[in-house]
């Protein structure tokens, strides 16, 4: 008896697929998957793909699981509780990749010149005490979710560039950081604009700089999956990336390129982001969160390498981890090489 793995089966079925007019990812029809997400505008590619049927067109039955930080999402991918996710590179993600548990397969949110991006913030208490620029955070407390998070990376790279020292305060969740900033328990933070701008508008914090000034072309978030899915479920993984990329295209057309209906896109995103606010109150924050999502989930490999180098230099991950351990470059275009 001959046993066929998925790849061989796809090869044998290629002729019939071509005859039927279906793309190869349609072979994944009716695959039920869980997608990890945060309730951020920057995760809109997934929300659009779900709401407009692009995942369904690609043969995927998607259920979202929502998280409040990056590292728990990486653990969920490694354990098999979630199939695909978009999140920032963290020390936890890199360590799980080193153990052969996960792979980065694409890029999502990125800093791009000409598009408003992430901000450095000062609490009102710190601002009133003289913290007017990122350099003024010397000797101050800088909030992060966890040690080895993207917040830690951004703060540390800024501190290195400015020649200052800060103490990093882990508070686990974005909500806890916002509370600590408002109460003056921490002095500084960096966050996406749809959170930064409303907080600054309320007077609770002050915008004192741009992350892009220190990290141009920063690949803020990545698309990732389990190493098993990347290796053994290529059809399903390509289907996910196909649906996600179509969602990203619609998002960019409406929110960045102004070639599609922005109001309709805001309505869609509001189903997932700022759901506790009326639409008219949520819309400005959703619009403020508009940043570039990479077309076709292209990945800036130079930025990922810089992040890996930083985590290693800080002793947060093993020094011998290679980019090949972290990234499967076979799925999407690689830029910045």
From TrEMBL:
Domain SsuA/THI5-like: 41-252
Primary subcellular site in the record, as a coarse category: periplasm
Transmembrane segments: none
Gene Ontology terms describing biological process: alkanesulfonate transmembrane transport
GO CC annotation, single: periplasmic space
Similarity annotation: Belongs to the bacterial solute-binding protein SsuA/TauA family.
Protein name: NitT/TauT family transport system substrate-binding protein
Organism encoding this protein: Marivita hallyeonensis
């Amino acid at each position: 008896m001959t046993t066929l793995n998925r790849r061989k089966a796809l090869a044998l079925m290629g002729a019939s697929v071509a005859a039927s007019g279906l793309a190869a990812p349609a072979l994944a029809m009716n695959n039920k998957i869980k997608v990890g997400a945060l309730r951020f505008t920057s995760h809109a590619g997934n929300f659009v793909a779900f709401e407009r049927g692009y995942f369904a067109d690609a043969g995927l039955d998607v259920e979202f699981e929502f998280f409040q930080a990056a590292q728990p999402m990486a653990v969920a991918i490694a354990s098999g509780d979630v199939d695909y996710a978009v999140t920032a590179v963290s020390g936890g993600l890199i360590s799980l990749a080193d153990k052969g548990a996960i792979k980065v397969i694409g890029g999502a949110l990125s800093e791009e010149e000409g598009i408003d991006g992430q901000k450095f913030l000062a609490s009102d208490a710190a601002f009133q005490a003289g913290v007017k620029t990122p350099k003024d955070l010397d000797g101050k407390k800088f909030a992060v979710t966890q040690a080895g998070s993207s917040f830690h990376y951004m703060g540390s790279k800024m501190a290195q560039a400015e020649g200052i020292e800060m103490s990093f305060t882990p508070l686990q969740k974005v909500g806890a950081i916002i509370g600590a900033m408002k109460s003056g328990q921490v002095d500084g933070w960096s966050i996406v604009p749809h959170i930064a701008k409303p907080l600054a508008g309320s007077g609770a914090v002050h915008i004192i700089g741009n992350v892009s000034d220190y990290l141009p072309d920063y690949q803020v978030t990545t698309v990732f999956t389990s190493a098993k899915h990347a290796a053994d479920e290529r059809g399903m993984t390509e289907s996910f990336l196909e649906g996600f990329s179509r969602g990203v295209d619609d998002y960019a057309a409406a929110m960045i390129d102004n070639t599609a209906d922005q109001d309709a896109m805001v309505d869609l995103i509001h189903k997932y982001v700022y759901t506790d606010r009326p639409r008219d109150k949520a819309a400005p924050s959703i619009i403020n969160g508009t940043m570039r999502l990479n077309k076709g989930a292209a990945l800036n490999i130079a930025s990922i390498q810089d992040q890996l180098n930083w985590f290693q230099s800080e002793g947060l991950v093993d020094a011998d981890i290679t980019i090949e351990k972290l990234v499967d470059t076979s799925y999407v275009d690689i830029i910045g090489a």
